[in-house]
Amino acid sequence: MEMFAFLFAALIVLLCAYWRVATKRPTQYPPGPQWLPIIGNTSLLRNETKKYGRQIDVFRVWKKLYNSSIIGLKLGRELVVVALDYSLIHKVHTSNEYDGRPDNFFLRLRTMGSRLGITCTDGEIWSEQRNFVSRHLRKTGYGRNAMEELIQHEMKDLIQVIDEFNEQPVCSGNIVSIGVLNVLWTFTAGKKISNNENLTHLLDLMRQRSKAFDMSGGWLNTIPFLRFIAPERTSFNLIKHFNAELCNFFKPIIEEHKREFSADRIDEDLVFAFINEMKRNEGVPSNFTDTQLIMVILDLFIAGSQSTSNTIDFILMSLVLNKDIQKKCHEEIDAVLSADDIPSLKDKPKLSYIEAVILETQRYYNIVPVSGPRRVLNDTELGGFHLPKNTTVLIGLETIHMDTEYWGDPDVFRPERFLDFDRKIVNTERFVAFGQGRRKCLGEALARASLFIFTVGILQKFSLEIPLNGKLPEKRTQAGLLTTPTPYKIVFKHR
């Protein structure tokens, strides 16, 4: 009996010691909620997100609660900090020690179990592959006239699709996303995606994936073993199915390029250029492999399939909700373009109000409210706190765009904040929708051009109306990895 009591007491002491070690915060670590052994703050963050609606809203609450613009958490075994003001975020964006990516289960699952591609890599492979993609996109016309002509062509196709609805109510996001993605896909694979039914299915999977996860990866990242117990509830099966669908979609295109490859075609599109690098490196260790090509395409597909089309969807929604702003857009377009003119990037200086509407939409709706994640490559300091090597950093972009001290009235949709008295674009110093520094969005030029030409092209031909006996679109958005509009219908009425 005495032995049992001794063992029991020893067990209690060991458990207490383990609890203390497992819940101890690192020295000079940022303030934040107390965490639990094994799961850390994952359960608390998930519950608070359900309570407040979005992860960024939880971080805002904690920012006030702990009177700190940097919050320290632990999610599973991962130390995670959240940067929530401009000075901190600018440092994370622009300092080399934050260029890493976490090596965790969620990010590896995103890239089919590998640590390849561009988005989720760091170090030499990231620099090599990013530079390669940037260089060859430029060779195929990215950022030049060829890009503009491609966007104009897709814009005209979109106008034709809208015409076919004959002023009947339609969900704009469903039709805009295909045109936007085809622009990116032409640079990648040299041609449009011809099977719209298949494309619509893939885009639907993308939306499901976006809603199922946040930037922290959730329970699946905290306790990967849960994929064996609850594969549906953790959305493990969703990602596996999504990955398999994309592989089945990409592989025939890659094989077709291999069959048709010749040295004089390497500048036609990214896939030909990549295959050329594979051939140049045959017989020697290289990052140019079939798997890496699939991962690069996957990164481009994920990056380009939703963010730009969601922004256009929000632009159209904002114009329906703000008829006075839509009227100003129409007046500006009518003063600059004739009915037969094709919108061009050279029109931007004369269509500054349209550009201001686009900027305000990106600021107001924040397609990526929490970005990252970054990995600290060495022990460092942020905001006066110590961040141990390999700490994960999440970036609260929305806190910059909704900062009352800087913007004054951030909760008001007001495009004029980006215009001076001469109607020139100003006040973009704190506009960080595309990030900053070396990891700035690779597709920024394409996204900006697409947003402008698609928006002007639609407004040149149509006014946006609420369906008869319909209801106004909801300002409430859907949370997830990306912010998406609550589905709504509008009428594209011929002008």
Summarize the helices and strands and which ones pair or pack.
Layout: H1 2-23, H2 42-52, H3 55-65, E1 70-75, E2 78-83, H4 86-94, H5 105-110, H6 123-139, H7 145-164, H8 172-189, H9 196-212, H10 218-222, H11 226-229, H12 236-260, H13 270-280, H14 290-305, H15 307-321, H16 323-336, H17 352-365, E3 371-375, E4 380-382, E5 385-387, E6 392-395, H18 397-401, H19 404-407, H20 444-461, E7 462-465, E8 477-478, E9 484-485, E10 491-494
Parallel strand pairs: 2-6
Antiparallel strand pairs: 1-2, 3-6, 4-5, 7-10, 8-9
Helix pairs in contact: 2-3, 7-8, 7-20, 8-14, 8-15, 9-12, 15-17, 15-20
Question: What do you see in this structure?
Answer:
The chain is of the alpha+beta class and 495 residues long. The protein has one domain (30-494): Cytochrome P450 (Cytochrome p450, Orthogonal Bundle). The protein is 53% helix and 8% strand. It has a 4-stranded mixed beta sheet. Helix 8 (172-189) packs antiparallel against helix 14 and helix 9 packs antiparallel against helix 12 (236-260). It is globular and about 95 Å long. The protein starts with a helix and ends with a strand. The model has no long low-confidence stretch (mean pLDDT 87).
